[in-house]
UniProtKB/TrEMBL annotation:
Organism, as annotated: Neobacillus kokaensis
Signal keyword on record: no
Domain VanZ-like: 14-148
PANTHER family: INTEGRAL MEMBRANE PROTEIN, MEMBRANE PROTEIN-RELATED
Record field: transmembrane: 7-29, 69-90, 102-125, 131-149
Record's keyword annotation contains Methyltransferase: no
Keywords linked to the UniProt accession: Membrane, Transmembrane, Transmembrane helix
Protein name per UniProt: VanZ-like domain-containing protein
Length: 166
């Protein structure tokens, strides 16, 4: 039963990552055009279109942006919510991901991978604030599963009959 659950969780993780990749990297590109989208641009204007200053975009969306409030909230909250499943699924797959520090690092590096791909291949724009928001999302996903695992573990220690979930 444990192997079946791990297999299902692995499949869910791969499906989630495929969907996340489409939403993050190829949100403006049709699936059939993805290969043609791989281009390299290296000029001064290109680098100015990215944000390398922490909290600049977050501050802009919260206090300065003259755009619809819903769009501002979607941009901030979307970056957080998009990575919450990652922080939720990892601790269920492997014991080494049951520590907050490890989940923070894994989420950060996944987000960094997406941001660097956007920077290098011009799929979007690199934004250091996305790294911050995505990592927060991974932590938010981690918290409920960590609480659940602690509750299950404490019930086992007290001798309560709990079927092994994972």
């Amino acid at each position: 039963m444990k192997i079946l659950i791990k297999t299902v969780l692995t499949i869910v993780l791969f499906l989630y990552l495929a969907i996340l990749t489409k939403l993050v990297l190829f949100k403006y590109v049709q699936v059939s055009e993805i290969i043609q989208s791989f281009t390299f641009i290296n000029n001064e204007h290109f680098l100015r279109a990215h944000n390398f200053i922490p909290f600049k975009t977050i501050y802009y969306y919260l206090f300065l942006a003259d755009i619809n409030l819903i769009i501002r909230i979607e941009n901030i909250v979307g970056n957080v919510i998009g990575f919450a499943p990652f922080g939720f699924i990892l601790p269920l797959l492997a014991n080494r991901f049951q520590k907050l520090k490890v989940v923070i690092l894994a989420t950060f590096f996944l987000s960094l991978t997406y941001e660097l791909m956007q920077l290098i291949f011009t799929f979007g724009s690199f934004d250091v604030d996305d790294l911050i928001l995505n990592t927060i999302g991974g932590v938010i996903g981690f918290i409920p599963i960590k609480i659940f695992l602690k509750l299950v573990g404490s019930r086992r220690k007290r001798g309560g009959k709990v079927n092994e979930v994972f």
